[in-house]
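Lab channel / #folding
Pinned by the channel admin:
"Please post every new chain as: sequence first, then the structure tokens as a reply. Keep commentary short and put observations after the output so the thread stays searchable."

First post following the new format, from NK:
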Amino acid sequence: MEGLSQGPRAEASFRLRLGDRRTFADRALTLIAIGLGVSALLPLFSVLYMLVVRGSPLLSLELLTELTPGAGMESGGIGNAILGTVVVVMLAAGMSLPLGLFAAIYLAEYGEDSGLSVVVRFAGKVLSGMPSILAGVFAYAIAVSALGSFSAFAGGVALAILIVPTVMLTAEEALRLVPSKMKQAALGMGATRAQMVTKVLIPTAMPGILTGVMLALSRAAGETAPLLLTALFSDYWFDGKLGEPIASLAVLIYNFSGSPFEYQVNLAWAASLVLVALVLLFNVLAQVVTRRPEEH
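Reply from TO:
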């Protein structure tokens, strides 16, 4: 009887110790995960802190509206570089987004696992990992050499080459995540395949598509090497001529960060802060746009 009475107690004690070990392991792994997450975020927050500390003293209306200063000048701004960045990125978006989206629709809905789809998907993955300077070299060969000069158009071509694979691959994945029952229901109600794609498939996948678009545009806005080989730089305002060099924030940062003049170096820090703020603004706007239909 005494042995039987000790049996349940021993089993309960064993389970308690086992539970304690599991609880300890769970808490330890949780702390390790939190620590790794914080350590991964530290470089990001340290860079943001440095940008705010070094770039915020120059933030003013004049900074955003005046032309870039010449060597040794103690005044000036980055207004033409901000405008030039927006122009070049919009040019690239106009050239690349339709192509990337149409390619994604073909891969996800029409091409399936055809030989052409395999080749296009493989090419997109290769291009997405391609060094950006190669896109600049290619754009230099087909645009700068053809036009005979550096230009905003050539810069848009270089950035479009970088945007297309990112948009195509992310949009394809978003389209594939749309439940097949929704597509079958639309087809079962008499919709054509084209109507199903435009009325059901794309609207449902739009949040994922916009996320990929913002990711691609954000990357393009911060690229320097392709623009150095194509758009170069200009100390003047963009006057609507796409065949002439144009200013950009990325090239301004590159040029001024190594300047021997203190004001130009500080201007590079301020331009870096503005560029990060613009990228953050575009991402926030994308989230707002994608959530608005769901709220209604």
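NK: Residues 234 and 256 are 13 Å apart (CA to CA).
TO: also worth noting, The longest helix spans residues 2-55.
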